[in-house]
Amino acid sequence: MVTIKDVARAAGVAPSTVSYVLSGSRKISAETGDAVRAAIAELGYHPNAGARSLRSTRTNVIALSLPLPARGYLPVGGRFMYGISEAARAFGHDLLLITAGDGGSGLERVARSRLADSAVLMGVEMEDPRIDAMHGLGLPVALLGRPADEAAAPWADLDWAAAAALAVRTLHGAGHRRIHYLATVEADIRTRRSYSVRGIDGARRAAAGLGTGVPVHPSSTDPAELARRIDALFDAPEPPTGLAVQHPAAIPGILRHLSGRGVEVPRDVSLIAIGNFPEDLGGLDTTRIELPVTEMSAAVTRLAVAASRPDRDAPDQGAGVLIPPRLTSGGTLAPPA
Amino acid sequence: MVTIKDVARAAGVAPSTVSYVLSGSRKISAETGDAVRAAIAELGYHPNAGARSLRSTRTNVIALSLPLPARGYLPVGGRFMYGISEAARAFGHDLLLITAGDGGSGLERVARSRLADSAVLMGVEMEDPRIDAMHGLGLPVALLGRPADEAAAPWADLDWAAAAALAVRTLHGAGHRRIHYLATVEADIRTRRSYSVRGIDGARRAAAGLGTGVPVHPSSTDPAELARRIDALFDAPEPPTGLAVQHPAAIPGILRHLSGRGVEVPRDVSLIAIGNFPEDLGGLDTTRIELPVTEMSAAVTRLAVAASRPDRDAPDQGAGVLIPPRLTSGGTLAPPA
DNA sequence: CTGAAAGCGCTTACAG
DNA sequence: CTGAAAGCGCTTACAG
After folding, report:
1. How many helices (H) and strands (E) does chain A have?
2. What would the pLDDT profile of B158-184 be if each residue is shown by its tens digit?
3. Interatomic separation, CA of residue A12 and C1' of nucleotide C11, rounded (Å)
4. Tens-digit pLDDT profile for residues A149-167
5. Which CATH number fits domain B61-158+294-323: 1.10.10.10, 3.40.50.300, 3.40.920.10, 3.40.50.2300?
């Protein structure tokens, strides 16, 4: 191992001087600084992370707490892990993955053993017990998802209400007057998941603002059950001509089933999807509002880093970052026949 | 912060005794041990990770090196991250996520700053430059994927050759004599990715063993292009009656296109899929050989932990773990008409 | 502008 | 069976 002593000897200075060159917290003469930097480069020196964190009580590590196991593995999880890891690096931090396999005690262990400076909580519910628990242990957190109590901790999320509203208004603007909202799967509605509740609410408000209404239906993970619901919609006397769908993974099944009924998209019905698109749906040219994974990752990581700084005028405490929805054009939107 | 001194004071012993109780490396009387454990529990003591790793040169952290960015984000990545994180916890380790965003230098930084005891390399190629680089830096690695040089480092992988062979033999055993192999996407074949090459090879050898042959076709991420290839197959004078597909994400598109041509599965053609199933294909009842993500994660994590132990009779060096394929029954296999 | 020294919280030979 | 002491590699007041 190359240590700070080796660098100091090579540069002909004291170890403390090397440390000051590294931290930049002291004025250093140009020649001393150059000699130190040259020695660091030549020896391939990197500060020992353990020693540094022991002495400075900063680890430059962010803990990423994965959703509770009850929620199951989420397809979108991998992209957030990747995005947050990249963002953490950009802030000079590393990312430690914490699964809730041991009942949430993973985060407590991280806090007590000082493995991280802050934590990002994924899959945040309207009420999330992890927030208070970590406050009690002195581990600052940032939330991926918008909780009921927006002041409990800094958070970042897509503005789901605005996204649903944008979908409804876009369909309305194209001339549609029979617009339906196919919401998230019913389990998410029943447990009042943040993005589910806010999406439905946004759609209804947008419709009300347009002087109309929008019937809301839950989606389903079971393709057969989803097909029955689609049938019920299109067997009605006045079938929808515009459909906003907050369940992108269901889009292939919906398209296939409609096509089987002789309903063509967008000739007979227009479609706007909202949310996370599985990677293997790349071939589908759907008009959509995509989950801005990279942007959300960058935002929540920035909040986590800010929360772990002692002072910095502490402007971000409890701040929320609401990311506006963006519509991507596709081949599933057209005026009604 | 609760330190070892606080525990020692509460238990009425020396700090070193607390340490010995924790490590178990010294005989301790029952009453002393109980007193120390009671104090630890009461105070909620966890050893400071930085201090521990500084002193013991062990971090109990495994670095997970994500695939090179050239490979793009892989849908299967999230499940491996989750699986390896869970496995690491079971071995008393944490998992640090390293993206190759900065050109592989992330791993070097981890090695030089002693942030981890070992690394798991994901998305290993037949030749992977990371292996030699980490050997040079003294960071032991374990590979998720089977490299060309199997002795270069311990590795774990599904036996892709056996999986392809099992698919071909199963179709043959059901009576099929016109079996085709739809391999991975051509980019993977062209770059000679391990699982791609081994799958094709396994299918060909199995067919040869049965005294027959198996035409091999590359798959495509472009649904339209894939449809053209399917058409070419089924427009031929002797269309396949059995299809082994090493590209599960393409299955919905294949089924839809075949159905559009009036080809029914399994009436007219049987299908066996091999590989990772996107989470949202749950509704499809496909006969298949699934990527054993949990098993592979546990195996590679065990290898990484073993590689970081100084001695332990060093039995695992360069050992490979080849996981046998398992066939899952589904509704896409039947005897030929 | 730079250095000598103390100390972060542990582990582990050394000693009894 | 247990304790006192050294030291891992840093950072940062203290001193000049």
Report:
1. 13, 12
2. 999 999 999 999 999 999 999 999 999
3. 32
4. 898 899 999 999 999 999 9
5. 3.40.50.2300
Residue A139: CB atoms within 10 A of its CB come to 24
Best probe of the A interface among B4, B97, B291, by most A CBs < 10 A, is: B97
Residue A67: which of A95, A94, A106 has the closest Cα? A106
Q: pLDDT by residue (tens digit) across B244-295?
A: 999 988 887 888 788 888 899 899 999 999 998 876 655 678 999 999 999 9
Nucleotide nearest to A27 (CA to C1'): C1
Q: Which residue has the tokens 């994660």?
A: B297
For position B280, what pLDDT does the model report? 60
Cα A119 from Cα A117, distance rounded (Å): 7
Please answer yes or no on whether B89 and A99 come within 8 Å at the CB atom. yes
Chain B contacts of A77, Cβ < 8 Å?
78, 81-82
The dihedrals phi and psi of A244, each to the nearest 5 degrees, come to -100, 130
Strands of chain A, DSSP E: 61-65, 94-98, 118-121, 141-144, 155-158, 179-185, 216-219, 242-245, 270-275, 288-290, 320-323, 327-328
**Which residues on chain B are in Cβ contact (under 8 Å) with A81?**
77-78, 81, 97
The CATH superfamily of A61-157+294-323 is Response regulator (3.40.50.2300)
The pLDDT assigned to B156 comes to 96
Distances (CA, A) of A122 to A96, A213, A231, B20: 13, 33, 36, 37
Q: Which string of DSSP letters, residue by residue, matches A184-220? A: EEHHHHHTT-HHHHHHHHHHHHHHHHTT----EEEE-
Q: What chain A residue is nearest to B227 in terms of C-alpha separation?
A: A283
Low-confidence stretches of chain A (pLDDT beneath 50): none
Cβ(B121)–Cβ(B141) below 8 Å = yes
Question: What is the topology classification, in CATH, of domain A4-47?
Answer: 434 Repressor (Amino-terminal Domain) (1.10.260)
Residue B277 is predicted with a pLDDT of 80
CA distances from B106 to B40, B47, B137, B231, B333 (A): 36, 27, 13, 46, 46
> Is B221 close to A283, i.e. CB distance below 8 A?
yes
Protein CA at A290 to nucleotide C1' at D5, angstroms:
62
- A15-23 vs A30-43: helix axis angle to the nearest 10? 90
Q: What is the pLDDT of residues A12-44, one digit of tens each?
A: 999 999 999 999 888 888 889 999 999 999 999
pLDDT at B240: 95
What sign does the CA torsion over A290, A294, A297, A299 have? Answer: negative
Question: CA B310, C1' D2: Å apart?
Answer: 28
Domain parsing of chain A, residue ranges: 4-47, 61-157+294-323, 160-291
- The model's pLDDT over B26-76, given as tens digits with 9 standing for 90+, comes to 888 888 999 999 999 999 999 999 999 999 989 999 999 987 655 555 667
Closest protein residue to D5 (Cα–C1') = B16
Q: How far is CA A337 from CA A175, A333, B10, in A?
A: 10, 12, 80
Supply the pLDDT for residue B274: 96
| Residue among B49, B59, B86 whose CB faces A114 most closely | B49
Q: Which fold has domain A160-291?
A: Rossmann fold (3.40.50)
User: For B289-314, what is the mean pLDDT?
Assistant: 87
Residues with CB under 7 A from strand D: A 1-5, 15-16, 19-20, 22-23, 25, 45, 47-48, 51-52, 54-56; B 12-17, 20, 26-29, 31-33, 51, 54-55
**What's the CA–C1' distance between A46 and D12, in Å?**
19
B86, A101: Cβ pair inside 8 Å?
A: yes
